[in-house]
Structure formats: C-alpha cells, structure tokens
Amino acid sequence: MFKKLFSLFSKSLAMDLGTANTLVYTKKDGIILNEPSVVALDAERGSVLAVGREAKEFIGRTPHRIKAIRPLRDGVIADFDVTSKLIEYFIRKVVRGLSFSRPRIVICVPTGITQVEKRAVIEAARHSGSGDVFLIEEPMAAAIGAGLPISEPKGCMIIDIGGGTSEVSVISLGGIVVTSALRTAGKDMDNAIVAMLRQRYALYIGETTAEEVKNTIGSALPLSPELEMSVKGRDLTDGLPKIDTVSSVEVREALDPIFLRIEDMIKVALEKTPPELAKDIVDQGVVLSGGVALMKGLAERFSRAINTPVIVAENPAFAVAFGVGKILDNLSTMKRVLMSVERGAR
To answer: Alpha-carbon Rg of the chain, whole angstroms?
Structure first.
C-alpha cells in the first residue's frame, strides 16, 4: 500500500545540471524547464531572492548586499549550499506543491568527475528533497540524446561543448571506451571576449553582453562577409558609457586559443581509440552537441582538424537533456549505462 502511495505522489525527473543552464525533463511532459543556473542571494540575510531566469537578470546589476551566483563551475558544484537551493527550487517548481514527494532523479555529470564532486552532486540532490539519485556521464547522455547506436558493437564518437566543460567520448556496446575532458568551454569563450574588448578598446562589458557577442558574431572559420556588431559597455579610461563596433574577425582571434585546445583534446582521444573503432568513426562521422555546437564554422573546423566528417546533432543544446530523459523513460533497461546509483529511503 505504501509503495502505491509513494508512486502516486512522487515524480521522476531527469536533470541536465549545467554550468550555464539547467534543464529538467519529465516522462509525461518532456523538457519542462530550461533556466540559467543562477541564484540571487541577499548576502546580509542569506535568503534567496531569485533563481534561474529572474536571477540572471541580476548579474552585473546588483547593489552590494545582493549577489548573483553561479554555483556550478566547470560542470561541477563549486558552492554546495547554493546548488542545493538551486536544485530544490527547480524540483519544487516542477513537482508543483507535492511537498511530501521525493522524486527519483537522473542527473548528468562531466566525465572525470572526482568521488568528492560526485558525492557533492548526490548530497545536493538529497538535500533538496529527492529520493533515488542516478548519475550519468554527459557524453553518454549526449550520445543517447543525439540518437547514436550506443549499444551496437561499433564505435560512436560524440563531442559535447557546454558552458563549463568540453568532452569527447568514444562509445561502443553501451560503454565509454575512450574519453577526454577539458574544463574549458562556453564560459571561457565569454571571458576571452571580455578580455579582448578590455585590451583592444578599453571597453568593459559583463558576461551577458559577452555571451550575446559570441552567439551573434562568433565564428570558428572566416566568414563571407565578416560580421560587425555594436557593443555597449563602460569606458575604462574615464568610467563613462561607451559604444564600440566589434568585428567577427576580432572575436574569432580571441576564441582561437580555445578552439585549438579543444582540437588537441579530440586528437588525444582519437590517438587512444582502438583501430577498429576508429574505422567506424571515419565511416559514420563524429557528432557535435552542446550549446556551443551551433557556432558558425565550428563543425567544419573540427572536421578539417581530424580529417573526419563532423555533424551537428539535431537540437544540440538539448541533446544531453533528451538523453537523460530517454534514460529516465527506460530506467529498467538502461541502468547499465549509469555511472552511479544512490537509493533513497522509503
């Protein structure tokens, strides 16, 4: 009887807990939440003022007593207490008032995560009111979400570039054979744009503006024609508001060192790949996913670097969330792809 009541009043969730954004998936409704991983706190009282989209609006606009915090860095928990508040807020928003429910939750984490970091994710989920906690590696979730045949005896390669981490994995027979990760990704690209504008124009901008520049005129290869964009910020010489025109050439030059580091990571993974699996990868190509995947020329640049076709996944920003959702929908048959299982109390 108790088990029936538990299943009635609990809800299973899948969560793509990212450095930049958090997505939540339910079996009934699919992706029902996609909000920035940001929490705004009153520093004096320690109370939460806003979470998610509303909290992101606070970034760069807060008085001294209010802090807008990204509690996840490089894809892992940097601030345990604030991450717990973030997860709790999103769970309550999705579960809609069933305060006594303890939802099962599948959460994706970066490859190479340490035991301490893994435990922090599990404890943050537990602290926020979840029951069973299942962890899955991001590249595996991305591959499943992109529709790759992960269970077949052939090599599949996925490159996932998110806000905090860039990861590449070769998957065969439902397991990760080779993997490589770099804690350099979308947020580092934003920081590189901020640094370039400071140095070249003495123009100081915030991370939201940098992200807009990246998404609007960022590119990995030369464009025809090249693009320009007016960027507003603060003049570092006199502190007054300022507008400068920035070109896609300048942005690409700022981002180039990051592209090169990701290319090196991919090449290292390919060097470690068994020859039979490498043959499969050449035959079917490499899939690119993550929020940065749609940057102009990025897939072509990677393709040239490794002499192998690179294809952008359908809805690349949601590939991980879709993959975690598929695992949630088929938990009984897909448990073998999970990284960790932590059972909650009944």
So the answer is: 21
Of the candidates 88, 50, 92, 87, the residue with the CA atom closest to the CA atom of residue 69? 50
Amino acid symbol at 159: I
Q: What is the CATH number of the domain that holds 164?
A: 3.30.420.40
Give the C-alpha separation, 139 to 172, whole Å: 12
> Which tokens go with 94?
């999705």
Residues 71 and 23 in one domain: yes
| Phi, psi for 112 (deg, rounded to 5) | 80, 5
Q: How do residues 271-306 score in pLDDT, each as one tens digit?
A: 999 999 999 999 999 999 999 999 999 999 999 999
Please state, in angstroms and rounded to a whole number, the distance separating the CA atoms of residues 167 and 242: 37
Distance CA 141, CA 212 (A): 27
pLDDT tens digits along 236-252: 999 999 999 999 999 99
Measured CA angle at 177 (ends 174, 180), to 5 deg = 120
Which range marks the domain in which residue 203 is found?
186-254
Over residues 96-155, the pLDDT tens digits come to 654 446 788 899 888 877 888 888 888 888 887 778 889 999 899 999 999 999 999 999
CA 124 to CA 129: how far, in whole Å? 9
Identify the helix (H) or strand (E) that includes residue 341: strand 340-342
